[in-house]
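Side project, low priority. Logging it here so it doesn't get lost.
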Amino acid sequence: MKIVILDGYTENPGDLSWSGLEAFGELKVYDRTPLDDEAEIIKRIGDAEIAITNKTPISKNIIDSCRNLKFISVLATGYNIVDVEYAKSKNIPVSNIPTYGTDAVGQFAIALLLEICHHIGHHDNAVKEGKWENCPDFCFWDYPLIELAGKTMGIIGFGRIGQKTGKIAKAIGMHVIAVDEYPNDFGKEIADYVTLDELLAKSDVIALHCPLFESTKGMINKANIAKMKDGVIILNNSRGPLIVEQDLADALNSGKVYAAGLDVVSTEPIKGDNPLLKAKNCFITPHISWAPKESRQRIMDMTCGNLKAFIDGSPVNVVNK
């Protein structure tokens, strides 16, 4: 059996092993594949039965051109880069990795928040630049420092990751409220479920952990920002298009929004004309919430499990049943 990995570098830049997948057949790993070059994608899949992708698109045309293709596995939770309905019509199951980064992504959301509250990186640099050494006082700080205990965190999207973020926020003394289409008992142990308008009005910190649907696209916009408290903090390490970026930039520059911590943007990698790059008090990291080694090892293990289940005739984590 021939197996092709189209873009393996972000999953495994060298600190993991592909040996689990090699056990299933002849494995070819490409670190990167041009995302907009269908001819090259077709060439690389060739006569392989298994295609494994992270962000390399697999379209109808690619599926038609790669006639040996029998199974597609996505090295991520999101699978919009595959034409799953057309794959279904060709009896090609597409599997994803549904739950691998809950702890890491929740942890990262809080890391963004703590950086905003304490500017740890900045103050570390300031010490090394001699500012503390030359300070007439025993301490100094260049930014306002924020204590989170007693403040309200509103979480939009209260599934596994939202609940993990909520647990950490609650542990440091925050009151947690949440919006979700499917309230459940686990969530009620962490947060009070409220309406979206109530969350926008009451939250000192708003964290986005919801999927990207037409109904959620652009939900952080001028109108909804106007409903928020002055000086609110916004966190997003879910999906970039949840935010209308110019509206958020304007709100940051006006002070309506005190700060934003973002691990995702609308177009990735980020483009130089993104208005958030020049917005005040905006912290942007390069989509790395998911990337601790432990999380990536879970992706590797679950991908091996997906492939074994397919070979055994009972595919799992199939998104196009």
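Brief comment: The first strand starts at residue 2 and ends at 5.
Revisit when time allows.
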